[in-house]
Write a structure and sequence with these properties.
Layout lengths: L1 H10 L8 H20 L3 H18 L6 H21 L21
Helix pairs in contact: 1-3, 1-4, 2-3, 2-4
Length: 108
Protein backbone atom coordinates (compact mmCIF):
# COMPACT_ATOMS: atom_id res chain seq x y z
CA UNK A 1 0.00 0.00 0.00
CA UNK A 2 3.06 2.24 0.40
CA UNK A 3 3.33 2.55 -3.38
CA UNK A 4 -0.28 3.69 -3.44
CA UNK A 5 0.35 6.40 -0.88
CA UNK A 6 3.52 7.54 -2.53
CA UNK A 7 2.16 7.64 -6.03
CA UNK A 8 -1.08 9.23 -4.90
CA UNK A 9 0.59 11.82 -2.72
CA UNK A 10 2.96 13.10 -5.30
CA UNK A 11 0.67 12.50 -8.21
CA UNK A 12 -1.84 14.78 -6.55
CA UNK A 13 0.76 17.53 -6.43
CA UNK A 14 1.34 17.34 -10.20
CA UNK A 15 0.06 19.29 -13.11
CA UNK A 16 -0.67 22.47 -14.89
CA UNK A 17 1.96 25.12 -14.76
CA UNK A 18 0.70 27.46 -17.43
CA UNK A 19 -0.16 24.96 -20.17
CA UNK A 20 -3.09 22.55 -20.31
CA UNK A 21 -0.89 19.94 -21.97
CA UNK A 22 1.57 19.87 -19.06
CA UNK A 23 -0.97 18.29 -16.69
CA UNK A 24 -2.16 15.92 -19.36
CA UNK A 25 1.42 14.89 -20.07
CA UNK A 26 2.01 14.11 -16.39
CA UNK A 27 -1.20 12.07 -16.27
CA UNK A 28 -0.14 10.16 -19.37
CA UNK A 29 3.21 9.37 -17.72
CA UNK A 30 1.43 8.15 -14.57
CA UNK A 31 -0.82 5.93 -16.68
CA UNK A 32 2.20 4.50 -18.51
CA UNK A 33 3.93 3.68 -15.23
CA UNK A 34 0.74 2.03 -13.99
CA UNK A 35 0.46 -0.10 -17.14
CA UNK A 36 4.11 -1.04 -16.83
CA UNK A 37 3.59 -2.12 -13.20
CA UNK A 38 0.57 -4.21 -14.15
CA UNK A 39 2.48 -5.82 -17.02
CA UNK A 40 5.17 -7.08 -14.63
CA UNK A 41 5.33 -10.83 -14.34
CA UNK A 42 7.22 -10.94 -11.06
CA UNK A 43 8.40 -9.11 -7.96
CA UNK A 44 11.74 -8.06 -9.45
CA UNK A 45 9.98 -6.23 -12.27
CA UNK A 46 7.54 -4.56 -9.86
CA UNK A 47 10.45 -3.48 -7.65
CA UNK A 48 12.08 -1.85 -10.67
CA UNK A 49 8.90 0.00 -11.57
CA UNK A 50 8.58 1.17 -7.95
CA UNK A 51 11.96 2.86 -8.40
CA UNK A 52 10.57 4.60 -11.49
CA UNK A 53 7.71 5.83 -9.31
CA UNK A 54 10.26 7.56 -7.08
CA UNK A 55 11.78 9.31 -10.08
CA UNK A 56 8.34 10.36 -11.32
CA UNK A 57 7.42 11.60 -7.84
CA UNK A 58 10.50 13.82 -7.75
CA UNK A 59 9.62 15.27 -11.13
CA UNK A 60 5.99 15.83 -10.12
CA UNK A 61 6.45 17.45 -6.71
CA UNK A 62 4.95 20.88 -6.24
CA UNK A 63 3.06 21.12 -9.51
CA UNK A 64 -0.58 22.15 -9.90
CA UNK A 65 -3.30 20.48 -11.94
CA UNK A 66 -6.99 20.48 -12.66
CA UNK A 67 -9.72 18.15 -11.40
CA UNK A 68 -9.81 15.98 -14.53
CA UNK A 69 -6.07 15.44 -14.43
CA UNK A 70 -6.22 14.59 -10.74
CA UNK A 71 -8.94 12.01 -11.48
CA UNK A 72 -6.86 10.39 -14.25
CA UNK A 73 -3.81 10.22 -12.02
CA UNK A 74 -5.76 8.80 -9.07
CA UNK A 75 -7.04 5.98 -11.28
CA UNK A 76 -3.51 5.23 -12.51
CA UNK A 77 -2.29 5.25 -8.92
CA UNK A 78 -4.94 2.78 -7.77
CA UNK A 79 -4.13 0.37 -10.59
CA UNK A 80 -0.37 0.60 -10.01
CA UNK A 81 -0.78 0.07 -6.27
CA UNK A 82 -2.96 -2.98 -6.76
CA UNK A 83 -0.58 -4.51 -9.28
CA UNK A 84 2.51 -3.75 -7.18
CA UNK A 85 0.94 -5.41 -4.16
CA UNK A 86 -0.11 -8.44 -6.21
CA UNK A 87 3.49 -8.84 -7.40
CA UNK A 88 4.80 -8.56 -3.83
CA UNK A 89 7.03 -5.56 -4.54
CA UNK A 90 9.53 -5.04 -1.73
CA UNK A 91 10.66 -1.72 -3.20
CA UNK A 92 7.19 -0.27 -2.78
CA UNK A 93 7.91 0.20 0.93
CA UNK A 94 10.95 2.31 0.02
CA UNK A 95 9.02 4.70 -2.21
CA UNK A 96 8.75 8.23 -0.84
CA UNK A 97 5.58 8.43 1.19
CA UNK A 98 5.52 12.21 1.30
CA UNK A 99 1.98 13.37 0.67
CA UNK A 100 2.33 16.95 -0.51
CA UNK A 101 -0.62 19.26 -0.33
CA UNK A 102 -3.08 18.71 -3.16
CA UNK A 103 -3.04 21.70 -5.44
CA UNK A 104 -6.19 21.85 -7.49
CA UNK A 105 -6.36 24.45 -10.23
CA UNK A 106 -9.20 24.52 -12.76
CA UNK A 107 -11.15 21.73 -14.38
CA UNK A 108 -8.62 20.19 -16.75
Amino acid sequence: MKIAGALAGVILAVGLTGCANAGSEMATEAEAISKKMCACADQACADGVAKEVNDWNTKAKGKKMGKKTIARIKEAEKAAAKCGEEKGSTEAAKVDDVAPEIVEEGEE
